[in-house]
Amino acid sequence: MSPSHQLPKNYDIEEVERRWQSAWRDEDNYFDPASSKPRFIIDTPPPYPTGNFHIGNALNWCYIDFIARYKRMRGYNVMFPQGWDCHGLPTEVKVEETYGITKNDVPREKFREMCRDLTLSNIEKMRATMRRLGFSTDWSHEYITMLPDYYRKTQASFLQMLKAGDIYQSEHPVNFCTRCETAIAFAEVNYAPRTTKLNYFDFDGIEIATTRPELLAACVAVAVHPEDERYRGMKGKRLTVPIFGHQVPVIEDVVVDPGFGSGAVMICTFGDKTDVYWWKQHDLDLRKAIDRQGVMTATAAPYAGMSSEACREAILRDMEEAGILKRQEVLEQRVGTCWRCKTPIEILSERQWFVRVHQDEILDAARKVSWTPEHMFTRMENWANSMEWDWCISRQRIFATPIPVWFCTACGETVLPAEEDLPIDPTVDKPKTPCPRCGGSDFTGETDVLDTWMDSSISVLHVTGWDGTGKPPFFPAQIRPQGHDIIRTWAFYTILRAKALVGSHPWDQILVNGMVLGEDGFKMSKSRNNIISPEEIVGQYGADALRQWGAGGAATGSDIMFNWNDVVAASRFQTKLWNIFRFVMGHLDSGTESPAPVTELTDRWLLVRLSETVAEVTAAMEGYQFDRALRAIREFAWNTLADDYIEIAKGRLYADDSSRESACSALRTTMDVLCRLLAPIIPHFAEECYHNLAGRSVHEEAWPDFSYADDEARRHGDLLVKTVAELRRYKHDKGMALNAPLGHVMIYAPEPIDDAGDAGRALAADARWSTGTPRLEEVTSGVDFNMAVIGPALRKQARGFMEAVRALPPEQLKNPPATVTVAGEDIPVPPGSFTPKVAYRVAGEEVDVLTLGDVVVTIGHSS
RNA sequence: GGGCUUGUGGUCUAGCCGGUCAUGACGUCGCCCUUACACGGCGAAGAUCCCCGGUUCGAAUCCGGGCAGGCCCA
User: Does the ipTM exceed 0.90?
Assistant: First the structure.
């Protein structure tokens, strides 16, 4: 019998992976809108096109690809789209750096073009990495938010919410980055520690402490705590602001911390969020001392034109000269900074556009989504409950979706385009009709643009087929996979927008992945020099090894530390699998169309264990527990199949015995099922094996529903495996080679077992099974307790019971009495509560004796 | 300061809706090139399951309090 296949000895990762990547056709991954299969739509994250698909993305996409491939095998019509969230500051900054310009140095459209070019080339780089990782992306559902087809929808969604009253414009304090010259949302504010000085000075007779003396010109009130004895009776008095001379009232408010500084605080418009609160609560004046560029305004004369830093120094110097600066203290504080450029943010009052945030509605919708892991919902809940201001969606930048409105020069009316005219750029295009209010025909286009989250928060509408109005045909999506770092942004805004535009929750499930940390346990960052790129891993160990790391590195949802060891182990597992596969293929006959029945014990046992593995892996995949799935597969392949089954059954495969066909059948089935189980996680490897085995693509196959029950085979097979393992250990302990002949072995088991001679061949011994009793001296040496029985049955009496049992004579351990006496009380013996430990002594004959549970093995010294 | 989360052999990790000698990987040590695999096989050593207290016959697992780390935020 000649082997049906000649497989290369080594598995060439690079060659195999590249070969399949070029053989696979994109069309096979396309979502079919006409299909009658159940839909499974994935709201894939659109990454920011930095040009660098990093390892955190890789983990995220591994999860997505496992799901997409698994669901396809389960018969779903899967959509695994790929978006690109293009707009935003990082690209503008990069363009400014690259060309050594600022955004105002070139015409708006020119600047946009530069941004678009950079973005497209970055997307190209990232696509290449994604393909090299073997993701089964549906490239027919790719979207790019900066292109008209997509931002038309962003603009439509804006108009729809504007008309519904969910979007409004208003002058309101907002977080403002004076370097980027734009408003930003709270979600974009980071906090950084800073050491600063707390300055105490005389404010018209009252001592005030401030960290922001440059805001003195913007002072609109002085506040004290209503129960602060030091300032009793001050409320309503008017004080003169030093240096500037304008008058401000003294107010009382419980939010003032009497323990900070002098207990009196100056309220400026605006130093921080609390100032905004007080300003609203007490209906105070508005004094703008800092402009959009961070420069002091005329209000701050004589300091007008200075930067805020220069102004601070100048005011402190002037206070000192005037003798009103009393002292300074060093203060550690946290300051809000721009997420992009780290510049401390200012709070400026500006006309901006806002989206109304209805916390309760958002949370209701969020509750309709199934969260994995569950506790991630709490983060959403906490964030929603902490929202105090509406979402500021206007930005004073260029590379973003234009806000599609004009203002009538004559009457100021806000004029909207018709939806069919979208997309528009109001700074270029003109309204097609005169002003509906005054009939005027001269308009100013809105120059503000939209927050980029306004683009990405309708990704789910886009992928479910939204055309700009009504409910998308495939809405809601089945799953949203994303990281926990963007729960407060992407998840939150998406739910808000789905609720506002469609009226319900956007997805059935959300799967939240953790962050990838460096090998040192910290977040990867340039400054820590602990960054590992996907390319680096793939270059050395291949995509499948990286994917295994993603699956098995940590439980789904928890942060995962990158670890080269795991990648190396993953690649070794593939080598092992390859050798298993090579061995099996070497024994299978070619063209076996009608497989022989599986008759022999070891073969049936293998199928029982395979069946259990399928059940375990399926359950794990359903719950997105990829680590469990991979672990179960590894355990089965390496321990059960390679170390146990093949070691025991291989003699039969060489022996050309009539029982050989049974083993071949079992192995063919096993390899077939194993390839399918591996297909979602290591698609290249599974494909390579499956093609050799079946001549077809494993990715076209169904998920295995293999089940095989055989209690006897399970029991007897376990016993056989245990016995062989024990005898191997015996050989090892005797210093014998594992293939050294062993002579006469008798295995006494409680049930008759027919192993088709497997044990004998595996051990190189003349092994026989018997149900008889060895003629040996039997000694009871102790007792094993089963706490799972004793504990619940006897509770507090458990200890006394065990004492009493230990004191029983040996024959009673073998044949338990109905009751034992504990502290003078007869208590019943629960069935199965203990088993005697039996040792066998040699009686004259020269044999070694091994005992494993109720099995006794005797080994004769001569053959 | 708040929320969430984690703390298991040298390193990483499973278990954590309580039950006999705590899973696996890497590393270490010993033996073995047994006709798939030395990127292998067999075996060994190595754990106060962060600390303290509680519940329980019994706690890595549940509860309370600490300590330490991570993430998100104020």
Answer: yes
Per-residue three-class SS string for A394-411:
EECCCCCCECCCEEECCC
Q: Give the side-chain half-sphere CA count within 13 A for A15.
A: 4
Distance of CA A322 to the CA centre of its chain: 59
| Nearest nucleotide by C1' position to the A728 CA atom | B42
- Residue A481 tokens, joined: 């996979």
The residue-averaged pLDDT of A702-730 equals 90
A19 CB-near residues (< 8 Å, 6+ apart): none
From CA A564, how far away is CA A332, in angstroms rounded? 39
SS3 category, A639? helix
Vertex A515, ends A513 and A516: CA angle to 5°?
Answer: 120
> What is the enclosing helix (H) or strand (E) of A678?
helix A660-678
Q: Which nucleotides of B are covered by protein (CB under 7 A)?
A: 2-6, 11-16, 19-20, 24-26, 30-37, 39-43, 56-58, 69-74
Q: From edge to edge, which strands make up the β-sheet containing A406-408? A: A414-415, A406-408, A443-445
Helices (runs of H) and strands (runs of E) counted in chain A: 25, 33
Mean pLDDT value of segment A520-537:
82
Q: Which two tokens stand for residue A64?
A: 């997505």
Q: Taking a C-beta distance cutoff of 8 angstroms, is the pair A423, A152 a contact? A: yes
Report which of residues 357-396 in chain A place their beta carbon less than 7 angstroms from any atom of strand B: 375-376, 378-379, 382-383, 386
Q: Beta carbon of A785 within 7 Å of strand B? A: yes
Q: How far apart are CA A326 and CA A343, in angstroms?
A: 30
Is the Cβ–Cβ distance between A95 and A115 less than 8 Å? yes
Span A783-801, pLDDT tens digits:
777 877 888 888 888 878 8
Whole-number Å distance between alpha carbons of A845 and A126: 74
Q: Are strands A189-203 and A206-210 parallel, antiparallel or unpaired?
A: antiparallel
Beta-bridge partner residues of A41: A79
| Average pLDDT of the residues in A462-471 | 94
Joined tokens for residue A101? 């310009």
First-residue to last-residue Cα distance in chain A: 32
CB A43 within 8 A of CB A143: no
R_g over Cα of chain A:
37
Reported as a single tens digit per residue, the pLDDT across A227-251 is 888 888 888 889 999 889 899 999 8
Please state, in angstroms and as integers, the Cα–Cα distance from residue A205 to each residue in A252, A612, A733, A796, following that order.
17, 83, 93, 76
Task: Convert the pLDDT of each residue in A496-524 to its tens digit.
Answer: 999 999 999 999 999 998 888 888 777 78
